[in-house]
Every structure is written in C-alpha cells, then in structure tokens.
Write a structure and sequence with these properties.
The complex is a heterodimer of chains A (288) and B (263). Chain A is built from 12 helices and no strands. By secondary structure, chain A is mostly helical. Chain A is flat and about 75 Å long. Chain B has a 10-stranded mixed β-sheet with strand order 5-4-1-2-10-9-3-8-7-6, with helices on both faces. The chains are: A mainly alpha (288), B alpha/beta (263).
C-alpha cells in the first residue's frame, strides 16, 4: 500500500534468518532487535544519571565538595521526603500546576484565536506586525511588577505572568501556520466556490494544527517558567515560592528537590500535550 | 461591449481577446498573456500546449476568475462573471489532497462546500472511488497512498460535485508513464461518458494529441495562439497505446513540436 518503507525495515539485520524460519519468527526477531536497541539507549541514560549522582554523593561525603553550598543527593532525597511528609509538596505542586495550566490554556486560546484570525485580513496583520514583534521582545520578568500591581499578589498575577509568557509566541506560531497554507490549496477551495469562512474552517484551521501543536509543546514550558517567575516575585505557596525561600535560607538540597519536582511537572505536562496531539491529529502518525 | 455580441449561452466556455499584465514593484509592466481567443464546446476535449513558463497557470486563474483580466473577457455559458463560475472542476499537477482527511473525506470536500446531506455525499464519493479502482482505500490517509492513487483520489474529488467543465493543469505530468496512461484512460472514459467538457493545459504534446479533439498551440510569453489542430485519428480513441502507434499520431506530434517554440 505504502510506497515508503520505514528506516527500521532496512537497518534491522537481526531479521535476516536462515531460510525455512517462519515469517512470524522473523517478525518476532525484528521486534526483539528493535526493543534491544531501545533498551540499550535507556540503559546508557540510566547509567549516566547514576554515575553523576554517585560522584556527587561521594564527593560531598568525602568533603571535597561542600554539601552546604552544593547540596547532596542524600540531602535532596531527605528534603523531598520531608516535603511529602508534611504535605507541602502536594500543595506547592498543585498551586504551580494550576497556575501553569490556567496560563497555558488562556495564553494559547487567546494567542491561537488572534493568530489565526489575522489570516482574515492581510491589512490588519501588516498593521499589527511591528507591535506583536515589539511585545514579543519584552522580557516577561520585566512585566512582573506591573502584573502584581494590576492583578494582586495571589493566583491571578501568576496566571497573568504565565499567560503573558505564552501569548505572543502562540500568536506568531498560529499566524505563521495560517500563512503557510499552500495558495494552490486555497485556489482549489475557491474553485469549489467556498466562502471565505469555509476556506478558514475547512482548510486554514486544520492546516495550521501541526504548527499549533508544535507551539503547544513549546509554550507549555514557557507557561511553567512564567508561573514560577510570578511566584518568585510574591507568593505564599508554589514550587517557585519554595525554591526562592529555600535559596534564601541556603537550604541548597531543598532547592534541588523542588527543582527536580518542577522538571517532573514540565515533563508530565509536555507528555500530556504530546498524547493529546496524537489523539486529535491521527493522520500525523502515518507521517512518522 | 463588442465581446458581448459574440457570447453564446450554449457554449460552456468562450474566451475573447483575453490578456493579462502584471506591474512589478519597480513599475515595469510584465505582459504574460497578450491576446487569447478560443472556445470550448459541450462534450469537447481541448488541449492548450505551450512551452513551460508561457503563462498557463495565469490563464487558468483568469478562467476561474481567481484573477481579473487586463483586457478581454471570459464567458461561461454566455455570461461574464465577477465571481468564480459554478460547475467547474479544477485539477493541478499537485494532488492538493488535505493530509488530515482520509481519501473519501477528500473526495467529499467539494460536496461539503456545496452543502447537503452527508450520507448522500458519502455514497457518491464511494461510487467514484470504486469507479477509479480505489474501493479498498476509502479510509486511508493520503500519506499512505502512492502517487498514482493520490492523483486518482484528486480526480474523484474533482468529479464529485459533477462539474460541467473540467480545467486540468498538467494533472498527470508528475506520474510515471504507466500510471499516467491508466489515469488518462480512466479520465477520458469518464469525461466522454458523462458528456463533460475538458480543457487540458499541458506541455506534453503526445498527451495532448492522444486525448483531445482539438489542440491549441501557445507561444512563449507574452502568450498568444500560434495554431490550432483538429485531431482526427482513426480507430478506437480510448486505446491510448495503440493510438500512439498510428501514423496520423506521429504526424500531429511532429507538426506541433515544430510549432512549439522551444529553445
């Protein structure tokens, strides 16, 4: 059916077996080979991690590296267990995750809607272009004092920071996606006497989805950074709050513990976005 | 306007003294099409053959009213339109299938734009896919189909809204010879069977001669008509391979080749 063969089919020399071996056995061998290779990559990754952590722990135990200044793996684990036991981990995690998700959703909904609707009018988009680029070049942290004045020191100001980190990138990506639609494809729609709204709905929006999802994967990280920066400025809970507090108290292991949780949160969130993409854009699997 | 008097309601497409120039940012005028006049009768297959870069795509856009002419007029059934005419099917070298739609959903695109019952659309699309030998592939995404199959899906999409006039811009030129002959045969059969008119823009002289009732030879830019040939070949016109071996065929091809100003 397909005239493209996956790269794996060629490189799998494991599959070359003696004649007479059944097709099924050969397929099983191919799969085994592939899994073996994936396993090797994972093994190396784990090994790198373990060696790094081991060296760190060893150096701090022998006193070559100050555990006070650089933290230690054992200290990090202890700090983590401490936050789990007193329950603060969950409240901080929930606070930051909620801020991030709200900012991510709000920023992308606003950004994607604006970006796509710019497709409707080349004139409006040309007028707005320098302003959008100017907004995009503002370092988000510089806006933190203003968001506190406007939105207070609570949940809203973090969501605002998170939204601001996302929205400009989201506008630009959606607009670029909409502009990237093949003009021949637009002509085809017009030759079918499609109205402009039909061209938008049936062609421009779905055609931009690939770019928009690439943007979502990118901006989920930005949203988290925005939320944490917001927490740095003023907060009562959240991972950013804990990192800032622990850093001020020279509790370096706690800082690393909170950082590790932040990294896990980022990975989980981008994992969810990738999962949703696979669910919503099923035609994309056939390409990879 | 003098063009008006020539317009006839019983002729699907008439072109009178059509011309198009573009003005570049530097203010230079670039004349793409100087003056074209021709007609496409009901049930007729006419090919426009020209050297590459002679403005064929511009012409197609003018015919579909995706672009306004600098002078002259295009009449669809005797009417000069200000919008895209209804009942045209447009097909390019690129299949232009939407990758997020399955084969059958792509075929249904034109019907969906028109509106109406979805079940009816599906039935019509299925029938066309069957006719073009793609019955098992209705739910495949374009990325999993071969080039020839994709172009067949594109053909089905073009035919689905039952256009009266087909405008094809080198639709088969990206295909290998064998696939091309098969699709050409199917196209020819469907066009003849349904009594559609076909305007085929191509630079493939053999394709033009084998498929057409008339071949119009275009000059290099600015584009004008060099000559017109009525193709009369003996025997079964649907046997495209045998046709290529007949004596008259080679004669037409040679004649058109010499008129095509290829550097």
């Amino acid at each position: 059916m397909s005239d493209r063969s996956g790269p794996n089919l060629i490189s799998d020399n494991v599959a070359v077996a003696a004649p007479g071996v059944s097709r099924q056995a050969r397929r099983a061998a191919t799969l085994r080979g592939r899994r073996l290779r994936q396993g090797r990559v994972l093994l190396c990754q784990i090994l790198c991690f373990v060696v790094f952590i081991g060296l760190w722990q060893w150096q701090t135990m022998t006193g070559h590296i100050s555990a006070f200044l650089y933290g230690s793996p054992a200290g990090i684990v202890a700090a983590l267990i401490g936050t789990i036991q007193d329950g603060s981990l969950w409240t901080d995690l929930a606070a930051t995750a909620l801020e991030t998700l709200a900012g991510f959703a709000l920023g992308n909904v606003i950004g994607t809607t604006l970006g796509l609707s710019l497709w409707y009018s080349r004139f409006v988009s040309q007028v707005l272009q320098p302003f959008i680029l100017a907004l995009g070049s503002i370092p988000i942290i510089a806006l933190a004092p203003i968001t506190i004045i406007w939105f207070g020191t609570g949940f809203a100001s973090k969501v605002a920071m998170s939204t601001l980190s996302v929205v400009v990138v989201s506008i630009i990506i959606a607009y670029k996606g909409a502009l990237g639609v093949d003009p021949d494809q637009i002509n085809l729609m017009l030759s079918l006497r499609a109205r402009r709204s039909q061209v938008f709905r049936l062609l421009v929006v779905p055609a931009s989805m690939t770019d928009i999802f690439a943007g979502l994967k990118l901006t989920v990280g930005f949203a988290l950074v925005g939320a944490i920066v917001g927490e740095f400025m003023s907060s009562t809970d959240g991972l950013g709050h804990e990192i800032f507090k622990s850093g001020s108290l020279y509790a370096i292991s706690s800082v690393f513990a909170e950082l590790a949780v932040t990294v896990i949160l980022a990975l989980v969130l981008s994992g969810i976005v990738a999962r949703v993409e696979r669910l919503l854009l099923p035609w994309r699997h056939d390409l990879s | 306007m003098q063009h008006r008097d020539l317009a006839r309601a019983d002729v699907p497409l008439q072109v009178h003294d059509l011309g198009k120039s573009f003005v570049s940012d530097k203010g230079e005028e670039l004349e793409i099409i100087r003056s074209l006049s021709f007609a496409l009768g009901r049930g007729e297959i006419v090919s426009l053959v020209g050297p590459s870069g002679c403005g064929k795509t511009t012409l197609l856009n003018l015919l579909c009213r995706l672009m306004e002419p600098s002078h002259g007029a295009v009449f669809w059934k005797g009417e000069e339109l200000a919008t895209v005419p209804s009942g045209i099917g447009y097909m390019l070298q690129k299949d232009l299938l939407l990758p997020w739609r399955t084969a059958i959903q792509n075929v249904m695109l034109g019907l969906q734009v028109k509106g109406g019952g979805r079940a009816q659309h599906r039935a019509r699309a299925n029938a066309l896919l069957d006719q073009l030998g793609l019955s098992g592939f209705a739910n495949h995404y374009p990325s999993t189909l071969s080039g020839g199959m994709r172009q067949r899906v594109a053909l089905a999409r073009t035919l689905a809204p039952e256009p009266e006039v087909l405008l094809f811009d080198e639709p088969f030129s990206a295909l290998d010879f064998q696939t091309k002959i098969l699709i050409e045969r199917d196209t020819l059969q469907l066009v003849r069977e349904l009594q559609r008119s076909l305007l085929l823009i191509t630079h493939d002289v053999e394709e033009a001669v084998s498929l057409s009732d008339r071949v119009i030879v275009l000059s290099r830019r600015p584009c004008t008509i060099v000559s017109e040939h009525r193709i009369e070949l003996p025997g079964d016109r649907s046997n495209l391979i045998a046709l290529r071996e007949s004596k008259g065929f080679a004669h037409y091809v040679r004649q058109i080749w010499t008129e095509l100003d290829i550097r």
